[in-house]
Amino acid sequence: MHTLKISKIKINDSDYQFKFGSKQDYDTILSQTSIVRDAATGLIVAGLFKKAISLETAKNAYPAFMAGFGYVTDNRGSYQGEKRKQETQKRSRTTEPVHSYTGGYFERQGGFTPICRATSFTREQNKAWRKQIPFLKEMATVVQENDPLRYSKLMDYIGKIQKDYTIDGLPFTTTAVNLSVRAAYHRDRGDYKGGVGCMAVLKKGVCINWKLVLPEYRVALDIGDRDVILFDPHLLHATTKGTGIGEIYKDWNRISVVAYVRERLIKCLPHEEEIKRARMRK
Do the bridges between strand 219-222 and strand 28-30 make them parallel or antiparallel, or are there none, so unpaired? Predict the structure, then answer.
């Protein structure tokens, strides 16, 4: 396997705010199975694993991921970049809702969600959710085989979380599924910091210019159909301004599946106790 060692450079996040990845942000493109390690720590910064998802698993999972097409959000200002409108200093909303949803489990967030719980998609589309699990298992295998140190840390942390909020013994509790959503520069939040990000892509039709860019290492990953990547989600990252040939969703589509551990799930009680706790606080 091709391995690169690259030193991290300092950047100013404000220089990248609300922008998509571009050629000026990277010097190296990973297009074959490769790993990038930090020159100082030796930790995996990014890894691209070609066709790591089997064809049969991908075919079975595609309609299950598309079952969430009806779930849209307008709370993705950081993802939509130029398509945002700022409502407050703390929150931005997209001018056009995007097809993006979460699977698995989330911690308490107050307001209308005072309990740890399964996400709306997992509850309402449970049959489709279960059909996504074999796909997530193949993603987990990539983590285990290529980053065993952080895989072990993830599994140790998972072991401390109530089983009500774990996924079939996998090193993930939660997924973010994006249906042809371009991502402006951002750093992920809420995930377990001792782990590693894992993302897989499914493509339909001809998709053009969908690279993931990590400017702190001047690296871009050219992620194809059924590829899996590992990367540090706390690094600044974005996609390039991807598109496709024909009508979106009908002729072409790019599904990205990000699987990770929600760090604050460790504070959750068993589900029945969460419900009792919420009732007592009313």
Answer: parallel
